[in-house]
Amino acid sequence: MRITLLCCLFLLASPAHALTVAAASSLRLVMPELERAFTAHHPKASVRVIFGASGKLATQILNGAPYDVFLSADDVYPQRLVDEGAAVHPPVNYASGRLVLWHKDPALGPLQPEALASDQIRRIAIAQPRHAPYGQRAAEALKALGLWQQVEPRLVYGENIGQTTAMVESGAADAGLIAWSLTFAPELADRPFTLIDRELHRPLDMAMVITAGGQDEPDARVFYDFMLSDEARSILMQYGFEPPAEP
To answer: How many CB atoms lie within 10 A of CB 75?
Structure first.
C-alpha cells in the first residue's frame, strides 16, 4: 500500500514528458516563435528543441537518441531515416532554405560571390559538408562559380550552420556562406549579405518526419500538423524561409 502511494506521488510530482524536436541549426532564430505559436494553441504541450547539423542529428536518431520529430535542413537525411526504419512515414517538406554570402564589415557593402577570390578575404567559413546541408550547397555553389580551387585553401568549417555564422560574426572568418534565416538576429541587422542564386546548387528542400521512437507521442503528430499550417508558414517566411516547393 505504502509503495503504491509513493509511486503515485512520484508520478504526480514528475514533470510531463516534453515533446523533443531535433531541429537543423538554421531554425535557431525562428523556433522560439514557432514554439510560442504552437503552445498558444496547445497550452498543455511542452516542447524541447535540440539543434545541430542535420546529418549529425540523423545519426543520433539512428543510434537511438530519443527525438520525437526531426526538422531537417534538407530532405536527404529524413529519407535516410525512413529507409533505415527510424521514421514512420515519408518525409514532408515544410519550407525551403536560402544560402547567402555574409561578411563582417558593414562598410564594404554587399559582396558578390566572385569577390571571394580576392586575397583580402583570408578566411571563408562554410558549414562542414560531410553532415551539414548548407555546407554541401555552399561547396556546390563555389564549384559552379569556378571558385572552388581558389578558395578551398582558405575555407574554415563550422560543425553546423550556427557555428559557421558565429565564426563570421566574431571575426574568426572574413566572410561566410550561411543560412539567410540566421541573418535576422537584431544584432546583425547592419551586416550586408547577398542571396546566392539558387540555380548554383541543389535546393534546400527542408523536410520533416516523426521518428519511430516518437510515433506513440501524441504531441508529435499535433506539432507535425502545426508545422504544415498557414500560421507556421507565415512565421517561417518572416525569418527568410520560403514556402516549400510544389510536389
So the answer is: 23
DSSP annotation of 206: E
The domain limits of the chain are 2-96+203-238, 97-200
For 2-96+203-238, CATH number?
Answer: 3.40.190.10
> What tens digit of pLDDT does each residue of 197-241 get?
999 999 999 999 999 999 999 999 999 999 999 999 999 999 999
- Report d(CA 220, CA 124) in Å as an integer: 38
Look at domain 97-200 and name its CATH class: alpha beta
Q: What is the spatial distance between Cα 219 and Cα 17, in angstroms, rounded to a whole number?
A: 10
Confidence band, pLDDT 50/70/90 cuts, at residue 12: very low
Residue type, 71: L
* Cα–Cα distance measured from residue 247 to residue 244, given in angstroms and rounded to the nearest whole number: 9
Q: Mean pLDDT across the chain, nearest whole number?
A: 90
* Whole-angstrom distance, CA of residue 123 vs CA of residue 88: 42
DSSP 190: T
Q: What is the pTM of this model?
A: 0.90
Pinpoint the alpha helices (H) of 44-200: 54-62, 76-83, 133-144, 148-151, 161-170
Bridge partner list, 24: 52
- pLDDT tens digit sequence for 29-61: 999 999 999 999 999 999 999 999 999 999 999
